[in-house]
Each structure stands twice: as C-alpha cells, then as structure tokens.
C-alpha cells in the first residue's frame, strides 16, 4: 500500500506544531480563581443557593457609551414566574417532588408501562400531559408547540427545538436494525429509524426524526424554530446515519491523536499543553524515516506548502490510509482497513443530510446545535461538525458544537477548535454542558478496561467548565468571532459568566454569549436573564406522548442529581404561590 497520503495528514493536523505559527497564550488555563461552592452539591448540575441578587456591570464596546449597571435578582419570583399560571406552578411542585424519590426514578419505565395498562391509552396520555410530559415536553408536533414558543419569546426566552422521539429495543431487535442500517433504506419512502448502540453494555436506543421521511421532519424543525428570534434546532449525528460508522471513524481519530502524541514524545514534548506541542520539522521527518513510514525524498515532499494546505485537519474520506505506531520499537499497523464502497456511501449520505439541514436552517435564519453523545461516537461527531462550521460559519455562527466538560479532555478539545477557527477565519460556535452520560461512560470504561474519561468529581467538572468558558470568553474579547451558549442550571456558573462578561466589557446585546436551560427547569434563571436583555433559550423537546416516553425516562435518570437537589426551585415556587395567594392573584393568567 502506498504511504503517500499518510504524512500530509500529520502536517495538516497540526500546522502550527510544525512551523511555529504564533499561538495565542492560554491565559484562561493559568488564571486562578476560586470556585463558588454550594452546600450539598450533587453529582449532577443543580441550581445552587444564592443569598444575594447578582448585580452585574455590563460595559458596551463603544467608548462613548456610559457604563450600565444591570441588577439580576434570581430570587424575584414574580419576575421569574410571570409567564406561568398558578396551575403550572402547582404542576411543577408536584413533578419536582415526585422526582426526589429514588424508587420512582429507578422504576419510571416499569411504572409508566403499568399505568398504561391500568388506565388505558387515552387516560394515560391525559395523566402524562398533566404531569411529566406537560412539564418537560412542549407538545406533540410542530403546530402544537408554537403557542409555547411564542409565549416564551414574549417573555424574552428563545427556543432550541429537539424532536425527542426514541424507542427502546431488545438485543435481537437491535442486531437486526444494525444489519438493516447497512443498506440505504433512508433514501426510500419508509419508516426506518436509526439505531444508537452502546457496544460496551449492549444498551440500545432507537432515535427517529431524521431517517424516516428525512426531508419532511428534520427541516421542519428549522421552520418552527424560525418563529423564535435567532432560534436553534438541535440535531443528533447518530440520527443521520449508521452509528457503527461513527464508531469506526472515532476509533481512527483517537488512534491518529495517539500517533501524534508519539511523535511529540520523540521530541521530548509529551505532557505539554496541546497548543504548545509544536513539532520541529527536521526532527519529525527523521522520526518518520526511522518508523519506516516512507523514503526520505517522499517525506520531504509531503511537507511542502502546497501539500500542507490551510485546512489544519485531514478530510474524513482520506482516513483509511492512516498508519500509527503500536509500540516504541516502531512497528506500524493500519488504523483502519479501507472503507468499503458501502461505508463510503454511508459517509456521503450522512454529509448530504447534514448539508440539507444546514442549508435549510440558514435559509430560515435558524442555527443548528449539534448535540454531544457518548465518547465512542464523539470524536467523529465533532469532526463532522467542524466540517459544517468551515462551510456555514464563514459569515456568522450558524453551526454550534457541544463540549461536555465532565470529560478530562474537554479543555484540549475547546482550545484546539478555537485555534483552528482563528487560523481559518470562520466563526467558532460552542455549547458548553457538564455532560449527560457519566454513569454509562464509567461503567463502560470499567467493563472494557480503559481509563475513565470522566473528571473525578463534581468540583473537578466545575473547574473544567469554568476553564473552558474563560478560554472562549477570552477569544471573544480577542476578535469577536467566537460564540458560546452557557448551557447550565447552576446559578453559580451563570453568575461567574456575568462577572466575566463585565471584566471583558462584553454587552449582552452583542449576542456573543447566550444561556440555555431545559424546558420545565430553572425558570428562576432563564426568565430573569431574558427580561434583562440577555440571550437565553429553553431546550424544547417535542413529539407524540408514547414515543417521547423513552426520552423522559432517560432524562429522569440523567438528571436525578439535579432533581434531588431542587429544594431551591421548590422553595421559590412555594414563595410565588404564597405571594399570589395573599395578593389576591391566585387566578393569575400571563398576558402577552
């Protein structure tokens, strides 16, 4: 096999590492600050108790504009819940209280199945709409969710739409669907859905907005989101193609990163920050010759300016010719055998679907938010999202990638992508989350025997989140081409962001920093921010009751820590109910 495609990849992956291109100092990494601590912090994000209103000075960029002082009171229940009638407040109290019982959370699926048998389908759906479904899901289809989107928008809160249809599968069903997904059934007028497989634990989940009637349902998300000013539509890459391909692709990218680390180690630069690992060209060429990658003349030709290009990363379709080192003796093994014709078709179809979504979103003035998924899919997801950003983020940030800060490598991922966007001149868009797959990731790491990819504890995740956020805010201050959504239910993190915006003279009207929370959670954060002029969004799931139940079940498991620590929110809900009772506003209806 020819090696002519191997080493141009090395150069394109890290051009600055080879030629010493100026790198911005990682000031965010070295900045020291104390992490705010809340009492009894759970393992998952929660709304921390805040004793005082958050007063934030926001300075506009124009020098002649006077400093404006904005006071945001997260304890003002009248403002926080002015979009809710009293029945909605009572429902929130009931749902949050039920979610504090471990038995109900652990057995939620079995209990819902039992309720369906006891009450029948129609009564079961009514009960769900009065409780959990009504609290966390906007409606069944694009028409039924519009009133909620419009109401939230009237109170300063935008929407991130997510068609949250999932289906649980048995092992046999999963294997059958996995085989079926090898064929191009997505292009046909079928009801095919896409399989998401946890190969470590054989946990199957079937997601389905896109592959069935792709051109109807997914672009429809963008149309509805367009009714919300500067709205978002959320997508999952595992719903755009065969997850097994994403798994293979991710494996290649991880091995390629290890190969680069090996080359850095040969120059004594292992252990350095990723943006500091600049490889000397002559030493790199010598290492590659010793590894037997190719002849000296061939290797020298690989590093010409024409061959290097400006992309900084290799195109996915060239991945199959990579080689990596297996040990210090220099033995090489192929990263992945050549993609079959069918696998290449799968990639092309996935890219085509991404292209359709992105174009449709741009045409309707909507931004796409690519959700993060499990670590064994995420390298490929991030890589494909980056390709979309290169194309569609030239004039404005239309595509946002998601970074999970409970991962040990989160800061490296953020800093590399920010640096790449600077060099190539496109808008960086990021959503920062703490993460949703902690238990699953740790179980899989223990079962298979690799290093736990998750930070050791909640405080470490907090530090990682703030470190990544500081880095992006510094980049925004540097050139105004970076953008971030602070997707957090933690009041301390929101206050931290507001303080940093003040320090960097960043005004909310620039729309460079926005905030996000799940529908039905932490309204005392979302609505005060929105009414104060900050861009803030609710993550809005929708879909038929029966088909959204697996989503609700999964969310209950993922957010159990937050729900158990929701005493703060329940106390504010009680406070607002008492205020309405004693002020004669118990029958209050929001006007908009």
Tell me the layout of helices and strands.
Blueprint lengths: L6 H7 L1 H5 L7 H4 L23 E5 L9 E5 L4 H4 L5 H13 L3 H5 L1 H12 L1 H10 L1 H5 L9 H9 L3 E6 L2 E3 L2 H10 L13 E5 L4 E5 L6 H12 L6 E4 L7 H24 L14 H10 L5 H7 L2 H4 L14 E3 L6 E3 L6 H23 L3 E4 L7 H15 L6 E6 L5 H15 L3 E6 L4 H11 L9 H22 L2 E6 L3 H13 L9 E6 L4 H9 L4 E7 L2 H14 L1 H5 L2 H16 L10
Parallel strand pairs: 3-7, 3-15, 7-10, 10-11, 11-12, 12-13, 13-14, 14-15
Antiparallel strand pairs: 1-2, 4-6, 5-6, 8-9
Helix pairs in contact: 5-26, 7-8, 12-17, 13-18, 19-21, 21-22
Function: Converts proline to delta-1-pyrroline-5-carboxylate.
InterPro entries: FAD-linked_oxidoreductase-like, Proline_DH_dom, Proline_oxidase
Keywords: Acetylation, FAD, Flavoprotein, Mitochondrion, Oxidoreductase, Proline metabolism, Transit peptide
What report would you give on this structure?
Helix 5 (86-98) packs antiparallel against helix 26, helix 12 (214-225) packs parallel to helix 17 (341-363) and helix 19 (410-424) packs parallel to helix 21. The chain is globular, with a radius of gyration of 25 Å. The protein has three domains: 76-137 and 568-591, no CATH class; 139-169 and 208-244 and 338-567, TIM Barrel (Alpha-Beta Barrel); 252-334, no CATH class. The strands form four sheets. An eight-stranded parallel barrel has the order 3-7-10-11-12-13-14-15, surrounded by eight helices. It has a three-stranded antiparallel sheet with strand order 4-6-5. It is of the alpha/beta class. The termini are far apart. Helix 23 links the parallel strand 14 (513-518) and strand 15. The chain is built from 26 helices and 15 strands. Pathway: Amino-acid degradation; L-proline degradation into L-glutamate; L-glutamate from L-proline: step 1/2. One of its GO terms (molecular function) is proline dehydrogenase activity. InterPro entries: FAD-linked_oxidoreductase-like, Proline_DH_dom, Proline_oxidase.
């Amino acid at each position: 096999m020819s090696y002519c495609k191997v080493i141009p990849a090395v150069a394109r992956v890290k051009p600055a590492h080879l030629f010493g291109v100026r790198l911005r100092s990682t000031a965010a990494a070295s900045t020291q600050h104390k992490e705010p601590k809340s009492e009894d912090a759970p393992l998952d994000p929660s709304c921390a108790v805040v004793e005082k209103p958050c007063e934030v000075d926001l300075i506009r960029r124009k020098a002649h504009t006077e400093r404006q002082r904005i006071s945001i009171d997260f304890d003002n229940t009248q403002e926080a819940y002015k979009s809710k009638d009293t029945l909605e407040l009572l429902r929130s109290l009931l749902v949050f209280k039920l979610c504090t019982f471990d038995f109900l959370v652990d057995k939620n699926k079995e209990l819902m199945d039992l309720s369906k048998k006891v009450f029948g389908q129609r009564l079961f759906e009514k009960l769900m709409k009065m409780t959990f479904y009504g609290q966390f899901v906007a409606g069944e289809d694009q028409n039924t969710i519009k009133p909620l989107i419009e109401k939230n928008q009237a109170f300063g809160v935008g929407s991130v739409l997510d068609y949250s249809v999932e289906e649980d599968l048995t092992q046999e069903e999963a294997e059958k669907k996995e085989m079926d997904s090898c064929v191009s059934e997505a292009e046909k007028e079928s009801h095919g859905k896409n399989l998401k497989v946890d190969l470590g634990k054989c946990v199957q989940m079937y997601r389905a907005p896109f592959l069935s009637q792709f051109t109807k349902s997914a672009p429809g998300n963008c149309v509805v989101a367009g009714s919300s000013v500067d709205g978002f539509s959320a997508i999952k890459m595992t719903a755009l193609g065969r997850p097994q391909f994403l798994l293979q692709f991710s494996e290649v990218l991880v091995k390629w990163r290890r190969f680069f680390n090996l080359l850095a180690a040969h120059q004594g630069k292992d252990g350095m920050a990723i943006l500091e690992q600049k490889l000397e060209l002559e030493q790199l060429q010598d290492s590659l010759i010793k590894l037997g990658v190719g002849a000296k003349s061939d290797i020298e030709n690989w590093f010409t300016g024409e061959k290097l290009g400006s992309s900084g990363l290799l195109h996915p379709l060239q991945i199959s010719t990579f080689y990596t080192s297996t040990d210090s003796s220099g033995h090489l093994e192929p990263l992945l055998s050549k993609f079959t014709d069918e696998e290449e078709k799968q990639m092309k179809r996935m890219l085509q679907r991404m292209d359709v979504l992105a174009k449709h979103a741009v045409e309707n003035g909507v931004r796409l938010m690519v959700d993060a998924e499990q670590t064994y899919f995420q390298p490929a997801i991030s890589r494909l999202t980056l390709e979309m950003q290169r194309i569609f983020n030239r004039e404005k940030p239309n595509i946002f990638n998601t970074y999970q800060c409970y991962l040990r490598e989160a800061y490296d991922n953020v800093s590399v992508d920010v640096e790449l966007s600077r060099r190539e001149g496109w808008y960086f868009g990021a959503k920062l989350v703490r993460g949703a797959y902690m238990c699953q990731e740790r179980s899989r790491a223990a079962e298979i025997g690799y290093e736990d990819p998750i930070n050791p504890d909640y405080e470490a995740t907090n530090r990682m989140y703030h470190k990544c956020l500081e880095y992006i805010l510094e980049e925004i201050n540097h050139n105004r081409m970076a953008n971030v959504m602070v997707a957090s239910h933690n009041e301390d993190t929101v206050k931290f962001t507001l303080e940093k915006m003040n320090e960097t003279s960043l005004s909310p009207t620039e729309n460079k920093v926005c905030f996000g929370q799940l529908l039905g959670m932490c309204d005392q954060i979302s609505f005060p921010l929105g009414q104060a002029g900050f861009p803030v969004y609710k993550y809005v799931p929708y879909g038929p009751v029966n088909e959204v139940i697996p989503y609700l079940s999964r969310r209950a498991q993922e957010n159990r820590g937050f729900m158990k620590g929701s005493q703060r929110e329940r106390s504010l809900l009680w406070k607002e109910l008492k205020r309405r009772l004693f002020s004669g506003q118990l029958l209050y209806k929001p006007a908009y």
